[in-house]
Design brief:
It is a single chain. The chain is mostly helical. Helix content is 58%, strand content 0%. α1 crosses α4.
């Protein structure tokens, strides 16, 4: 029997933002070929999601705006993929646990 879980709006946004920013960080580190980043630039989609939620906008509107936002780290992310990110709390839990192998698989030699 599968487990069914309801997510609050804040949880969905956190789930998506953790994953979007983890992927953005990984891509930026790989772009500088392993050198330390001088500055991390958060994912524009994650920033759009967080800003819209903080303003109190409706979640559907926030989701749509984030999906339409252009960012260098996720140029071809679809709305369906963003929705999947919102319901997958793997990256949020890995971040809280300090599990860098799950957060950054390409940096730690694991392919997911």
């Amino acid at each position: 029997m599968s487990e069914f879980r309801l997510y609050t709006t804040e949880e969905k946004v956190q789930n998506a933002c953790h994953r979007l920013n983890a992927e953005a960080y990984e891509k930026q580190v790989l772009a500088v070929k392993g050198w330390k980043l001088k500055q991390f630039n958060p994912c524009a989609k994650a920033e759009q999601l967080m800003a819209a939620i903080r303003k109190g906008d409706h979640f559907g509107t926030c989701h749509m705006r984030a999906a339409q936002t252009h960012c260098e780290c996720h140029p071809s992310l679809t709305e369906a993929q963003l929705m999947a990110y919102e319901y997958d709390e793997t990256y949020k839990l890995a971040n809280f646990a300090g599990d860098h192998k799950t957060l950054y698989p390409r940096l730690y030699g694991r392919t997911a």
